[in-house]
Structures are given as structure tokens and as C-alpha cells.
Amino acid sequence: MDRKPNLTSSPALRLPPLNALRAFETAARHLSFAIAAKELHVTPAAISHQVKGLEDYFGQRLFRRLKRGLELTRAGQVLLPRLSEGFVRLGDAVAELRSIEEEGTLAVSAAPSFATRWLAPRLHRFVGSNPELDVRINASTRLIDPGKDPTVSGDTVVGSPVEDADIVVRFGTGDYPGFRVDKLLNVAVTPMCSPRLLKSGPPLRVPADLKDHVLIHDNVRYDDGRSLWDAWFDAAGLPDMDTSHGLGFSHALLALEAAADGMGVTMGMPVLAGTDLASGRLVAPLPLSLPLKFAYYIVSGLDTAERADVVAFRDWLFAEAKRG
Questions:
Q1: CATH 3.40.190.10 corresponds to the domain 187-292
Q2: Distance from C-alpha of 194 to C-alpha of 284, rounded to nearest angstrom
Q3: CA 324 to CA 303: how far, in whole Å?
Q4: Within 13 A of 273's CA, how many CA atoms are on the CB side?
């Protein structure tokens, strides 16, 4: 073994390579190079090489290599608990650092359809009124789960309802215990299509005319689990209308685009298609609109809900909802 290094020869303590320390700590916990290699996604030879380098660095054996496996030496027994504690603390520090947003940055999470069709066209007004804030939009459909996302302490939820977000807009029931929840927009659906379809296709003046058109379906369901088309035809007095045919898309955005391209008629939400309806890219030819129980809700953690930037963004969302 080489002579022990002089760890006090410089003002700052010289530490061995982090990879070597991690290799030793993992192997020492399992008393196995093979298991440590699987945990760290390297080869057993790589673990053995790292440990050998660490032993050379300290000038002491850390393991006894026996036929039946590994055994910690006295030096290894002294090093392991402090090293394990150090890695835990390091992990906690990194997690805490990642949870802190850069000052002046507001992180917003919203469903892709809402972020694209409702939020993005209006966002310039908030940015113009709040130039000191950098707004970061994350389009996500991740569910809000008080048991997984934030830290729950008693009846109080500490932290963001969604990772890396200060405020969230979600389409759902609004039942998010432990968070501040504000209803933003009620939602209804009605048939929509391209105006070209009305000019060149079969008539579309009454609900029964839809039997001659291609129905476009998406992944949104009615309150009771039925398809939106089934629920709408029931409300229109046509419960026996065949809705099994047509085009199917995994997302409402795709269905709206298909309708705008003249591929058929979709059951769209005016709240998401407002820009297309206003420009005439889409039309809603039938007057019947079907309200949904689901709505768009603003959700934030109780510890961040009254933060000035979160309050400003929430108030702005309410103001935009009133604008229509």
C-alpha cells in the first residue's frame, strides 16, 4: 500500500473521486461488487477498480476479499456510515436546490390543449404587464396527486401540485384536497366543422343531418363516461344515433385540426376553439351546446398560493376568462 496522503497540506480538504466513494459505499452496503455494479449500472470490474483506487488513496484496505464474499475491515466500517450519511445529505441538498425556482421566474403548468389554444394567444398581455417576470410554460397532462407530488404535513400540502410548477391549470372535477383550487372556466361542447364542409358537403341544419357526415372523436369523455357524441345526441333527442363510425384521435387538439381541414365534424369546446371560431376557420352550425361537469381549475400549493407572482397570474387568468 502507498503511504497515506497528507490531507492537511492545503487549505481545502482534498477528497478522493466521488465515483470511487460511491462505488465503495454501494459495495459496502451490499457486501458485493456484483450487486453494486447492477445498482450503479457498471461492471463488477469497474467497481473493483474504483475501490482499489480508493484503498490506494487512503493507504488502507477497506475490504477483505474472502471466498464467501466481502467483509469490511475496521477502516471500511469507520468510513461506511459517515459516507452513507453524506450521500443522503448531498441528495437532500440537490433536491432542495431543484425545488427552488430562480428568482423572478414563474413556472406555469397547463394541459397541452389549454396551453396552446387558450393560454398562448393571451399570454402577451400578462408578459407586457409584468416585464420583471420570466414566465415558463410547461404543457403537461400529469395528474395532481397529493400523495406523490408535494409533501403532506397533517392537512397542509407543502409544495407545488405539480413538479417544477408554481401554478397549475387542470381540466377536471376540482377535487384536489390540500391545495388552493379556483374554478376558472366552465366547459361545454358543440359540433364544429370547417365552413367549407357546409358549402360542399351534405346539409347540416339539424342534428339528424349528422348521420351523413364523418364524426370525429377525441379522448375527452362525458361526465358519466360516455362518448361526447353519445351524450350530445341523447340531449338532442336522438339516443339511437350510430356514433361508432368516423375518425378517432388521441387528443382534442388533433380533432380540432382535422375538423378545420374539412375531414368531418368534431365535438369541440368553444373555450378552446375560440380563436378558430372568431376567425371563421371553424363554425358551430348547430345551436345545441352540452355543458360538462368537468371544468378548468387553477390549482396551487397552500404555501405558494399567496405569493405575489402567483396571485398576479391567477388574477390575470380570471380577467382573461371574463374577456371571453
A1: yes
A2: 9
A3: 30
A4: 28
C-beta atoms surrounding 184 within 10 Å = 21
- How many CB atoms are closer than 10 A to CB 131? 7
**6-10, 153-157, 165-169, 275-279: lowest mean pLDDT where?**
153-157
Q: Tell me if the pTM is above 0.85.
A: no
Residue carrying C-alpha cell 473493483:
48
Q: Where are the beta strands (DSSP E) in the chain?
A: 63-66, 69-72, 105-110, 134-139, 151-153, 156-158, 167-172, 179-192, 215-217, 247-248, 265-268, 290-301
Average pLDDT over residues 179-191: 95
- For residue 127, give the 3-state DSSP assignment: helix
DSSP annotation of 245 reads: -
Closest CA to 219 of 196, 189, 188, 250: 250
Secondary structure class of 54 (helix, strand, coil):
helix
Domain 18-99 part of CATH 1.10.10.10: yes
DSSP string across 168-216 = EEEEE----TTEEEEEEEEEEEEEEB-HHHHHHSS--SSGGGGGGS-EE
Around 225, how many Cα atoms within 13 Å sit in the side-chain half-sphere?
0
CB 213 within 8 A of CB 204: yes
State the fold for domain 105-184+295-323.
Answer: D-Maltodextrin-Binding Protein; domain 2 (3.40.190)
